Amino acid sequence: MATTPAPPQAPPKPTWDPRKPQPPFPWLRPTIRIRLTLLYGGMFLIAGILLLSIIYLLAAQAISTGNQPLFKIVGGTDIKVTSDNCPAITAINSTRLPLSDFNDVIAHCVDQQRQGALDNLLSRSLLALLGLAVIAFAFGYAMAGRVLSPLGRITRTARQVAGSDLSRRIELDGPDDELKELADTFDDMLERLQRAFTAQQRFVGNASHELRTPLAINRTLLEVHLSDPDAPVELQQLGKTLLATNERSEQLVEGLLLLARSDNQIVERKPVDLAEVASQAVDQVHAEAEAKGVSVRGERRPAVVQGNGVLLERIALNLVQNAVRYNVPEAGWVEVSTQVEHGHAVLTVSNTGPVVPAYEIDNLFEPFRRLRTERTGSDKGVGLGLSIVRSVTRAHGGHILAEPREGGGLVMRVTLPV
What we know:
Elements: H1 32-63, H2 87-91, H3 99-162, H4 178-226, H5 233-262, E1 270-273, H6 274-284, H7 286-291, E2 294-297, E3 304-307, H8 309-325, E4 332-341, E5 344-351, H9 361-364, H10 385-395, E6 399-404, E7 410-417
Parallel strand pairs: 2-4
Antiparallel strand pairs: 1-3, 4-5, 5-7, 6-7
Helix pairs in contact: 1-3, 3-4, 4-5, 5-10, 6-8, 8-10
């Protein structure tokens, strides 16, 4: 049987974990609100520094008269000057200095007082600017939060829609600005998506009925003809072939419908123990495993998750069936285990089998895609098993990781939130 040719480029990796790890310090994340706050506060700080520099220069120019003193003593006898802020003036009273030196000492003291006044003005202004900067940053943070609150509302609605709740709407009130226009556009998009999703659900329901009915009728007719003991051997052989083909078509239809339904989030969730689900899957494939000489083992510890029991059972059943069917001809084994690790329920299915190249693993999760090795056998499935597993896993908020096992076979690891 001809194999499916490989695509020109690899498809997106299906084992990607959609949940982003949380940063160690979430409050340091450069959000728009933080950036706007820094912008507002930074602009105020720059403007304050410029204003303070201008005031300082104007004040220095106003109280300064250049190098000339404000006054001079030109004559007189027995002149005494005292000052508490300038001890040098008091010291010269006990000495006989020329008037020029006496005037120089007074000018020096006046310059010191002028510089002290400017330094005092600068220090007090810097303290005032620092206090106003703190107030400006706080005010900017509050105003940025108020301005961006509609975006937070839009984000919360988008997250609710991501949970398959398409009935949610933003319905933003307030002025007719750009944010309201964005919210109204988003509401219109949700309305169209809801109509499209409803139409898809209706189509899936109709297709389920229209496709299952003729296949069920064909199966019944074939089984009736095969039950006739007088039917020729050739007719019985043809009937068995057609019955197998019809069964394969039924599996294909069921797989497609399940794949279409499981692409959405699970709305109704109930506690489901993965250990019980895995045990049921092992029981269902027990006869097939014995027929192929494959032993099934593994420790299944309790691992309760919130989800749909039927879909979770489909995950385990598909993985165990694949592990049994794609195994070595002799002395093969399949190990099925469940446990709880780091707050997540983990289902692990590993098996012996043919060597799987690492670059081929991505293709296993694509619909109707198989490896170019033993997995191309048409009697082993319709090529939707792992696609359904990935779709159902994502619908439950989990992810699946596939790794080639050393010596042949695969290790499938499904991680689901508890």
